[in-house]
Amino acid sequence: MPINKHSLREDGFTGFRTLAALEINRIPQRTGIFAVLQPAGYQPRFLPKSTAGIFKKKDPSLSEAAVTTEWIEGADVVYLGKAGAGSKGNRGLRRQIQEFIDFGQGKPPGHWDGRLIWQLADPGSLLIAWKELPAEAVNGAEAGYHARFREDHGRLPFANLVQARVKGTPVKETPVKGSTGQKRIDDAG
Questions:
Q1: pTM of the model
Q2: Which domain holds residue 140?
Q3: How confident is the model at residue 164 (pLDDT cuts 50, 70, 90)?
Q4: Is residue 167 one of the residues assigned to a domain?
């Protein structure tokens, strides 16, 4: 079954709020995974420059041609992410999603996976949903959803430029289609 709003609900995801109407304090603080989905009838328009924050002195923007190439017609999910506990045990879904949104508002991030969301003209209409999981299950769950998406579409969701993996799994880097030096990380094998 393809990954979409219906299948995610069946898998235990909750939320399904637009980014614009998201009340951050309603997101659980526990660890888990989250998905960003396009609403029904969504027509992507791409900005020439991302609204996202600068990462390691690098502009997160891709050319319009590169961003357009990354878009996957027919895919409901545009990003799949995770929220672990962090080294101090104080992270989780609420903090990770807040940082993700802050990144889209120009604040510097800790990483820039998901940055293509912030090159869409109307990211506020996108939906976000989450699923609480024990910390030890987060990496495997994210990798599993990435693998399922890849089975359906032949590659990762639009804004996932890095393949999730479980520790010890070999990876290889391949260039992002139409990009200017960014890499996608794919399973070796």
A1: 0.85
A2: 5-159
A3: low
A4: no
| Residue 69: φ, ψ to 5° | -65, -35
What the block records as the tokens of 52 is 């996202």
Nearest to 179 by CA among 69, 34, 21: 69
18-47 pLDDT per residue, tens: 999 999 999 999 999 999 999 999 999 999
Number of domains comprising the chain: 1
Residue 174 domain-assigned (yes or no): no
Distance CA 160, CA 42 (A): 19
Distance CA 98, CA 152 (A): 29
For the record, the structure tokens of 101 come out as 């949104």
Residue 179: inside a domain, yes or no? no
Residue 102 has phi, psi (to 5 degrees) of -60, -40
